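Trying the structure run again after the queue cleared.
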Amino acid sequence: MTLGESLRGKTAVVTGSNSGIGLAIAKALAGAGADVVLNSFTDRAEDHALAEQIGHEAGVSARYVAADMSDPAQCRDLIAQAGRCDILVNNAGIQHVAPIPEFPEGKWDQIIAINLSSAFHTTAMALPMMRAAGWGRVINVASAHGLTASPYKSAYVAAKHGVIGLTKTTALETAQEAITANAICPGYVLTPIVEKQIPDTMKEYAMTREEVIEKVMLTRQPSKQFATVEQIGGTAVFLCSEHAAQMTGTTLSLDGGWTAL
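Done. Tokens:
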């Protein structure tokens, strides 16, 4: 089976997908023929217009469903509103940086809820749908920080390690079915948010753009190159293909060698 139109007739739900990595994954899956449900916590006209544009360009059904991934009920309702979920991509996430003694309790709870617990709630709702259809793919967007750690990112690191554990458990519970569960672990990715950080970092360190990227942002990424959102989208499509039918319970690192160190 080729990757081109391999997902025709499937429905993909991608959380946190109105920008960045999630948006690129939604576009890639739509390009492979899947109908897509986009999501974020906002409910703006431009969110719905974005879904309409993706659907028009790819020739698939695409719609936007607003849901706050910090709320278990809304996580589960997102899948219910989708009506069908052959492919679940748990991508929603936030970050906060602070030493452990100074880490705000509320921020810890919010990061764990959005980055980890949301994936549990959506998976719990999606698996019965996948079993009824006789096929399914769970793709959890973890991080290099799901495999290693950095200081001052306690909640994020804990959540992403948890996502990988959830991925493995999901894979074992579905191992004898035509359902797989895997985690994509990006390093630094050139998203719009990261791009906006570069000018301020240049001022802070009195460095050129190139110096900031190599010596500050990508200091732990041996390739000294960002991963692209398109590369992550392509990886998601591969995981949905028959080529990856026996790939389950594992991690795929797109980190320029970060976790090889």
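The chain has two domains: 11-188+227-255, 190-226. Worth checking whether this holds up in the mutant runs.
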